[in-house]
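EI: anyone free to look at a 393-residue chain?
SC: sure, send it
EI:
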Amino acid sequence: MRDVVIAGVGSTRFGRHLDRTYGSLVSEAVTTALGDAGASAGDAGLVVYGNSGAGVVYGQESVRGQHAVRGTGLDGIPLVNVENACATGSTAVNQAWLAVAAGQVDVAVAIGAEKLNHPDRSRAFAVMTAALDQDRLDEIRDDLGTGGSGSVFMDLYARWTRWYAERTDATPEDFARVAVKNHAHGALNPHAQYGATLTVDEVLAARRISGDLTLPMCAPMSDGAAAAVITTPEIARRWGAQPVRLLATVVGAGRAGAYGELVPATARRAFAAAGVGPEDVDLLECHDAASPAELIVLEELGLAADGGGVGLLRDGVTTLGGRMPVNPSGGLGSKGHPIGATGLGQLVELTDQLRGRCGDRQVEGARIGMAENAGGYLGPDAAAASVTILGAA
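SC: here you go
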């Protein structure tokens, strides 16, 4: 297998873009990524397009990517459509990496895009419900009970939060501190959906969504697109790009009836492929669809001891300026969560961090960055996961 790099990245601002089309969002992300790499659309031998909700929300099925890339210059280039719950964008990168590493193509463009906002908000909630095991939908709802959130996934995160609190000394104030930290990070990110900072008291006093989760602890429904140009080190040098090494990209699948094994197993495979360990990670972008998930994921990835995620938070380790900042982009809660673009958006952040391009939110001296996504639900664990590790060139 060949060495592979990310030569260029691009992203729209995440947010509510009711006035923009998929094509508009994708064109912005792709044009930025190609320009960043010093490449042209004609250099690409493959396009991998990730999207989760266009069929449910807008009725666009089957040829989502072919529809979205019109006018970008990528028209007519072989294209594969990818859908993998909240891991969709990072799975698109995985498939692009595989094609380049295997020598099938020299250049691939990975794209993630989503438009969840629609005048009929029930369509976005239907996307979430569609990510559950439909054969067991009634059973899952009966098992969860009535969380009152309107979103079964926030009810799920409320359950996982309760389980975490029962086995650790984490408190609602700690969960609020995660949201406060990430909104402070997001306030430094021009691509973030939310730019306001919050206090712990404000988070705790906000509208309750489900269990201990209040509104600022929950990721918003977002629109946006992100893209990455993936190639070999030799081609990146020829373009004059500033590449970042794609050390590992691993996709995992959950098992019905299992809990707490999917992300740890995927992380172990990623560390083995990258040839690094948890102690080498300088920063993390993780899937904090609800703020307490950040503490859980730190432990699942092996970046904190069992029950130790909350201690890293309290000690300031995970804040900008700490030893291992987590979600310097603002995370899903502040930056936003356009499902198909979320994972790729994380990798845009890591790529720019490892190049030293993040301004006031720069993680100084960062050499190894890690990203994690998990989504869908088989019960009681997620259905899909992805872990990606990048290294500075």
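EI: Residues 132-219+250-392 form a domain with the Peroxisomal Thiolase; Chain A, domain 1 fold (CATH 3.40.47.10).
SC: 👍
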